[in-house]
Design a protein that fits this description.
Blueprint (H helix, E strand, L loop, with lengths): L3 E8 L4 E9 L6 E2 L1 H4 L6 E10 L6 E14 L2 E9 L7 E4 H6 L2 E4 L4 E4 L2 H7 L1
Parallel strand pairs: 2-7, 3-6
Antiparallel strand pairs: 1-2, 1-5, 3-7, 4-5, 5-6, 8-9
């Protein structure tokens, strides 16, 4: 199984920070480790907690906060919601919903990530 992990610049209302981000098509939603978000943006409490299943049978993690931030891929700014997941083993995870929404393509042969150029046109309208 191939993995693509790249340093991406995340920008929010409080500042910016480069986070090593795992592109995971097996993860539905995008996530950030809570330890990094205080420097980037204000977190928002979820109206109802969400529970994420783990690889361990019967184990799940309660998620109570989210954040909306921008991040940069190939000079294209992308914006999305990220869940703050306690104990996340990565600094950030870009999930399938974000990749589909922004037409992000993974090139495992060259360990690169590409954004459809039409996305930039959609932002300018």
């Amino acid at each position: 199984m191939s993995v693509i992990k790249l340093p991406l610049l995340f920008v929010g209302s409080k500042g910016e920070r480069r986070l090593y981000s795992l592109f995971d098509s097996g993860a539905n939603l995008s996530c950030i480790h809570p330890a990094y978000i205080d420097q980037i943006a204000n977190k928002e409490k979820l109206p109802t907690p969400r529970y994420i299943a783990t690889a361990s049978e019967g184990q799940r993690i309660e998620v109570t906060h989210r954040v909306i931030v921008d991040f940069w891929i190939e000079d294209v700014v992308v914006s999305d919601e990220f869940l703050l997941v306690p104990g996340l083993t990565e600094e950030a995870v870009i999930g399938a919903a974000t990749m589909q929404k922004w037409r992000i393509k993974l090139d495992f042969e060259h360990d690169t990530v590409h954004v459809d150029p039409k996305v930039m046109k959609m932002q300018l309208i």
